[in-house]
Design brief:
The longest helix is centred in the N-terminal third of the chain and has 32 residues. This protein is an alpha/beta fold. The chain is built from six helices and eight strands. Strands 1, 2, 3, 4, 5, 6, 7 and 8 form an eight-stranded mixed sheet that branches. The protein is elongated and about 85 Å long. The chain has two domains: 36 residues; 202 residues, Rossmann fold (3-Layer(aba) Sandwich). The site of S-adenosylmethionine (SAM) has 20 residues, from helix 2.
């Protein structure tokens, strides 16, 4: 006969075993998804998503990127933009004529989407996709770009190092502490990250940008005019920064 104490230990070990098994199963399934389906599914989702997002955020993007024309005049020659996490090339339509764009992406399946999209903008020179992570951009010569752009990328990037030139950003961010918005972000985090390239909803992106060591920064917090299913990503920051 098992004593009551032994029985408790036995049940506790069984529960622990089940939890570990479920965790291992989850990790294994995610690993398989990440290396098989995700590179096919995620760019497709992003193509549709970018269309909806651009239509709702057109005014915000136009205002942000209008400054690129001033930068182009100041540079005096061809403007070169490094776009980190360029995705399907949703921002190409906002770049001034004659701009050279270096798209950087960790997922090379975005390459064909970028190429197709580039055909619609013969006014730009879209360079070959650099397959790399924002955390490791050693293939980009540090002084070779005039501007760096990220839109909806810092939610997936742990740390962006060595950003040179003027940095333009439009990013969704974590909601206010103890707000309904933040609660919902936590609630939907797991499936959201699964479908949207490991996007973390609750990150304090403004702080991450501040920690990149810019000498000046112009950052506005806005509520994005997005449809209800995108409620968890309504809080945004938009602006630019210089070293
Ligand atoms: C939500 S999508 C945004 C794409 C595009 N910037 C846009 O606004 O439509 C996030 C993009 O960041 C890329 N990404 C994810 N992790 C990254 C990393 N560590 N470094 C650079 N890009 C990354 C993804 O592959 C994806 O293309």
């Amino acid at each position: 006969m098992l004593s009551a104490n032994m029985l408790n230990y036995y049940v506790a070990f069984q529960i622990l075993g089940v939890v570990i098994l479920l965790w291992l199963l989850n990790r294994t399934l995610y690993y398989i998804y990440e290396h098989t389906l995700e590179p096919i599914v995620f760019p497709r989702i992003m193509k549709t998503f970018a269309r909806v997002y651009n239509s709702r955020m057109d005014r915000v993007k136009r205002q942000l990127f209008s400054d690129l024309s001033n930068l182009k005049k100041a540079v005096g020659s061809q403007l070169t933009i490094l776009e980190i996490g360029a995705g399907t090339g949703a921002n190409f339509k906002y770049y001034p004529d004659g701009t050279s764009v270096i798209p950087l992406e960790p997922m090379d399946n975005f390459g064909s989407y970028l190429k197709d999209n580039a055909k619609e903008f013969p006014n730009l020179t879209v360079e070959k996709l650099v397959v790399a992570f924002g955390e490791d951009m050693k293939d980009i010569p540090s002084e070779s770009v005039d501007a760096v752009v990220t839109t909806l990328v810092l939610c997936s990037v742990k740390e962006v190092t060595s950003v040179h030139g003027k940095y333009y950003f439009l990013e969704h961010v974590g909601g206010e502490k103890y707000s309904v918005g933040k609660f919902i972000q936590h609630l939907v985090q797991v499936p959201w990250a699964f479908l949207l390239g490991n996007c973390i909803l609750t990150r304090n992106i403004q702080q991450s940008i501040e920690e990149m060591g810019f000498s000046s920064m112009n950052c506005q917090q806005i509520v994005a005019p997005l449809p209800l299913p995108l409620y968890p990503m309504l809080p945004h920051v938009v602006g630019f920064a210089v070293k």
